[in-house]
What we know:
The chain contains three helices and nine strands, in the order βββββββαβααβ. By secondary structure, the protein is an alpha+beta fold.
Amino acid sequence: xxxxxxxxxxxxxxxxxxxxxxxxxxxxxxxxxxxxxxxxxxxxxxxxxxxxxxxxxxxxxxxxxxxxxxxxxxxxxxxxxxxxxxxxxxxxxxxxxxxxxxxxxxxxxxxxxxxxxxxxxxxxxxxxxxxxxxxxxxxxxxxxxxxxxxxxxxxxxxxxxxxxxxxxxxxxxxxxxxxxxxxx
Length: 184
């Protein structure tokens, strides 16, 4: 007899408590004020920089925070047609316990939990926007992630979460490659 197992709806994204974030068990986002950053990771000279909006999570004070919540557009590949253009889409927040040492962070300001929940809502609203690239051209990869992050930053300014001057300074510094290397 053959038994066919039906996949459960939460096979890859288990439900979590309170916020509903899949990675919350790594570091819960407590109701405390923490800074939010534009984070730019440069994995290698040949790969373009990876842009995200990030903040520390997992503790009741910044000093005890154990992880980072990152919002970024990620590659979505078509496995049926490998010649198809790669798209970049937002698929939800990612929590990381260790940060790349090559990440530069540009502080956008201090935020409350309610403000960070609004940032998550804005990211989801922008979410399905796709940015394509040709598979043999690496330069637009960085542009796609950057474009998505800038759209989120623009939305954050529009609703008053980040001052225009902080957004502009962070984008200018990140584009120029100037910034403090941090552990995020």
